[in-house]
Design brief:
Layout lengths: L3 E7 L6 E7 L1 H49 L17 H51 L4 H30 L7 E4 H15 L4 E7 L3 E4 L1 H18 L3 E9 L2 E8 L31 H11 L3 E6 L5 E8 L7
Parallel strand pairs: 4-6
Antiparallel strand pairs: 1-2, 3-5, 6-7, 7-9, 8-9
Helix pairs in contact: 2-3, 3-6, 4-5, 5-6
Length: 331
């Protein structure tokens, strides 16, 4: 009844053979035991491994689910909320940190937008109120001077038109961060044109452009004209009686400088002066919506340049604009 493994080997040419047999019951019993053990242990091991993997994956993804729930709960008015950051220094922690930074940027952008809308409403209310008051007074008193009324209304209308144009420019600048269309622009020609225009508007201010020399930049001629116009208008508005303008090429760049002999700008306000709707103290205020320098900064930034304000040798403010030369800009 036992099981054997037998080997038969021929011994010599007289048909004699060597027969060797080995009992293999023990081997077969061990094999059957191994098969039974594996049949039981492998499914159990797989189930245990699946359970461990499920637990580890759930533990790993739990912070992701917490982040998801927090993000779902954040509405337009809850941008000050932040997602939880796991203490582990891994990809999920970095994801949470990046998301919090994004929420901070959105909160800042939303705050700027609300402030912008409030400032716009305030700035538009002033000329509209003057228009309404003027018309109501003329209609109530019956003393209607058509020419005087029309001139007054025209002045307020021009102010509103300028404000709307500035707001449209800023809105377009915020929506489109791409570089403006570039082409060779003669800065000296732009400065000459804008200086003549500003002289006509403020004949009491002496505008010296003797420091302007030939200089070419690659940029948008309309925007660069607006840049020079805003700087000249700001300088002439605050000048006591003199404005100096210079432009020249220096080390492959074009440097434009506009100085005035007005009250100047306090060093603490030299960064803030470029913010939108900012008006400084009474010595440095004189009309306007506070958008001209903000637009100038956006134009310079769009052309890859720099703008800063320092003290002027004339005693007032000195605006220095650096723009890449025509050879430095590649479309």
């Amino acid at each position: 009844d036992d099981s054997y493994r037998v080997v038969i080997q021929a011994f010599d040419d007289r048909a004699r053979f060597v027969v060797v047999g080995e009992n293999v019951d023990d081997v077969e019993d061990a094999l059957r035991g191994l098969v039974v053990a594996l049949a039981v242990l492998i499914p159990v091991a797989l189930l245990a491994l699946a359970g461990v993997i499920w637990w580890l994956v759930g533990r790993t993804l739990r912070p992701v689910d917490e982040i998801r729930r927090e993000v779902v709960s954040i509405g337009p008015g809850d941008l000050d909320h932040r997602v939880p950051v796991p203490e582990t220094d891994d990809e999920i922690a970095r994801l949470a940190t990046t998301m919090n930074e994004m929420l901070a940027r959105l909160e800042e952008s939303s705050a700027r937008q609300r402030q912008f809308v409030a400032d716009v409403s305030h700035e538009l209310r002033t000329p509209l109120t003057r228009l309404r008051t003027r018309l109501e007074v003329d209609l109530t008193t019956g003393d209607l001077d058509v020419e005087t009324t029309c001139r007054s209304v025209l002045g307020d209308t021009n102010e509103m038109q300028q404000l709307v144009d500035d707001l449209l420019f800023l809105a377009h600048s915020d929506a489109d961060a791409s570089r403006p269309a570039t082409g060779p622009v003669d800065v000296d020609v732009v400065v000459d044109t804008e200086v003549r225009h500003q002289r006509a508007l403020t004949p009491a201010v002496d505008i010296d452009q003797s420091g302007v020399s030939a200089a070419v930049v690659a940029g948008d001629a309309g925007q660069l004209s607006r840049l020079v116009r805003n700087l000249l208008s700001n300088a002439a508005r605050h000048a006591t009686g003199r404005v100096e303008v210079s432009a020249a090429e220096q080390d492959g760049a074009v440097v434009l400088v506009v100085s005035d002999d007005g009250p100047g700008i306090d060093p603490d306000d030299r960064d803030r002066v470029f913010d939108r709707f900012v008006r400084l103290d009474a010595a440095r205020s004189g009309g306007g919506a506070g958008l001209g320098l903000a637009i100038a900064r956006d134009i310079v930034a769009a052309h890859g340049g720099t703008i800063e304000v320092t003290a002027s040798p004339l005693g007032g403010a000195r605006f220095v604009v650096g723009l890449p030369g025509a050879g430095e800009v590649h479309p």
